[in-house]
Please model this.
Amino acid sequence: MSRPPEEQGSERRAALATVGAVVAIVLVVVGANLLTRGAGGGADPAPGAPAAAEPSTPTAAELETMSPQEVADAALLDRGEVAPQALPSGAGRLRNRVQDLVTAQPYSFTLTTFNILGSQHTAPGGAAAEYAPGRVRTEWAAALVASYGSSIVGLQELQSDQLSALGRATDGRFAFWPGTALGGTGVPQSLMWDSSVWTPTYQDSITVPFMGGTRPQPIVRLQHVASGREVYVLNIHNSPKDAQGREDERDKAEQIEVAAVNTLRKDGIPVFILGDFNEHEDAFCRFTGQAGMQAANGGSHSGACRPPRPMRVDWIFGTPDVQFSGFRMDTGPAVRRITDHAVITTQVTVP
Model:
């Protein structure tokens, strides 16, 4: 026996009201998060991005006397908290459902580390003068990054002329940190990200020993535009092996970087560290063993350290709360005319 039309209409109205309430609360949550992000914004090379915290820049002599954890903690002291999802009070039985709708949004992106071979090395008289000039190679590099579909790229050896060329070659789609914001020593380790995919919510650096001096290594917290979720990305370049070996510098730098990763992990979001480590097994064993990370190209650290094969000095590491797939160590002709490094790329999924 069918129910009276009034009863059916009443049920429909109740169902619509429930759906409307859920949608309204979701909009309130998203709006609150956007407002929270906006309140922390400030000046930056990219319009609307947050201002960087005042960097802690100890000298090389000070680094020798400070513990790695002291260096990392001093640099990361003012990073602020990852903003929680804001739920209005009184949501009652809809609260859990709204929380699921807001936070359970898996997403994927492509992550790349690219030692671009500094233009000073390929200038006339440089150690790699057989390569094309930096500006030309940078244009080729932009095309290569586009072919990978990368939305976050850690660069090493980047020079000011290459930074400008890269901005032009990508039509201003990518933002950079630090770019020129920390002076000439910050440019070579710049991170870049697709501004249509990511919004920066925190930018800073840690200081490590480098070639007898110091270098800032950039840290960015990026918010994924589509999902509202965040990640930390550290981009590094540690001392190369010159006539002095520089092993002690690399060891101290990695200890500081491990300490930084472990501090950032406390915020409960994924952390990535990538770049030119100028180390093979040592880098893998340290970051998987002391920071609990995984390498994009595999290997394991269960009981004993078992690095992946083959290895380069360029690495991408991530915390265990992400999934890597489609790892690529590109040494093809397009790469060989740009740089003397492999270009490392991986797909990342955040569940």
The radius of gyration is 23 Å. Residues 14-48, 85-89 have pLDDT under 50 and may be disordered.
